[in-house]
Amino acid sequence: SIGAGGGSIAWINEAGALNVGPQSAGSDPGPACYGKGGTEPTVTDANLVLGRLDPNNFLGGEIAINPELARKAINEKIAQPLNLTLEEAASGIISVVNTKMAYAIRATTIQRGLDPKEFVLLAFGGAGPMHACALAKELGIPKVLIPMAPGAFSALGMLLTDIRQDYVRTVVTLLDSSRADQLEAIFQEMAQEAVRTLREQLDNCEVRILRSADMRYVGQEYTVSVPVPAERITQEALPRLRESFNRLHEQIYGHHSDTEPVEIINLRLTAFGEVPKVKFAQIPKGTATPPREAFKGTLKARFDGVVDCPVYQREALLAGNIIEGPAVIQEKGATTVLLPGCTLVVSDYGYFMIEVKSDG
Question: Is 63 helix (H, G, I), strand (E, B) or coil?
Answer without folding.
Answer: coil
